[in-house]
Amino acid sequence: MELKLQIENGGILYEPAVEEGVVWETSRKGSPGKLTFSVVKDGVLSFSEGSGVRLEVDGAKLFKGFVFTKRRGKGPAIDVTAYDQLRYLKNKDTLMFEDMTAAGRLRDIAGQFGLECGSIEETGVVLPGRLTEDNTTLFDMVLNALDETTRQTGRLFVLYDDFGKLTLKDVGRLRLDLLIDAETGESFEYTSSIDSQTYNKIKLAYDNKDTGKREVYIAQDGQKMNEWGVLQYFEKLDNPTGAAAKADALLGLYDQKTRNLSVKNVMGDVRVRAGCSVAVALDLGDVVTNNFMVVENAKHTFKNQEHRMDLTLIGGEFIA
After folding, report:
1. In this predicted model, what pLDDT tens digit does every residue of 53-70 receive, in sequence order?
2. Superfamily covering domain 91-171
3. What is the CATH number assigned to the segment(s) 3-84?
4. Cβ neighbours for 191, distance < 8 A, ≥ 6 positions apart
5. Among residues 45, 64, 103, 309, which one has the fewest Cβ atoms lying within 10 Å of its Cβ?
6. Local structure of residue 285 (DSSP, 8 states)
7. Mean of the per-residue pLDDT values of the chain
8. What is the three-class DSSP state of 110?
9. CA-based nearest residue to 30, from 159, 186, 126
């Protein structure tokens, strides 16, 4: 395994001595990519917060970001935490958007904050322009638009940083030919619940100012209501267009148990990052998985010439 870590500072590119234990982490939603490592300080190495960081493993470009934290004790080692470009989406602001898709909103924000875009897939659903909540993170502005797109279409999009470029893709385009089973993972943890993000009754309401009446749109699963009791999702609408279809789509998304699956110490694969899909074949007791699942969180550890992954997976009945 060839691990190449570089730090750029003041136009100078350093390849420092890196101690064992480089960790690269990604999350599908709401968090930037994170790289943690320790370098040995010598008479040549010089860098500070804001310096650029790049990581390549066996020629694959995994991470490009910036130093945010340095920590040092008595010894020569400096512990470093770096984040990719998504870190700047944690900035807060109040912005006005015109009618546009979630992809358009992302491009708009990137342009205003000087962020570099790569491949941005069109999301298709035009969302009404509005003033966002005051003091809202840029992340939430984009993710709220993506969530609404998912509610209307059932399509799931993933926002990530591809070696220094903001990228947005449908999860269907991120499928890998990789199998996770009892042989490839050291252990797994599985939970199922109806306590969070499970709804068997969807109720949408629109207050019609012209008629002075409230219009109600309901989609429900009577069998699941008898089994679990009534678990209701309620939302007030600003516009009644497509309300019935939206209620049906929400029921399709949430009318199921939430199941979380985590696998530990899987043999590493540099292609795996949050948002991609891998094949999973595991007997979990009350359910047997034999399908593709989306990686919700991925943690890669490079240590002692070994590459291992810890993965949290969703898909089918598995919802984070």
Report:
1. 999 999 999 999 999 999
2. Baseplate protein-like domains (3.55.50.10)
3. 2.30.300.10
4. 259, 260
5. 45
6. S
7. 90
8. helix
9. 159
Q: How long a stretch of residues is the chain?
A: 320
173-201 in b/e burial notation, b at 16+ Cβ within 10 A?
A: ebeeebebeeeebeebebeeebeeebbbb
φ, ψ at 49 (rounded to 5°)? -60, 135
pTM for this predicted structure = 0.85
Angle at alpha carbon of residue 174, lines to 80 and 162, rounded to 5°: 35
31 or 20, which is more confident? 31
Q: Check residue 286 and give its pLDDT.
A: 61
- Sorted by where each begins, the domain ranges of the chain are 3-84, 91-171, 174-194+257-314, 201-254
Distance CA 259, CA 192 (A): 4
Which residue do the tokens 């234990």 mark? Answer: 21
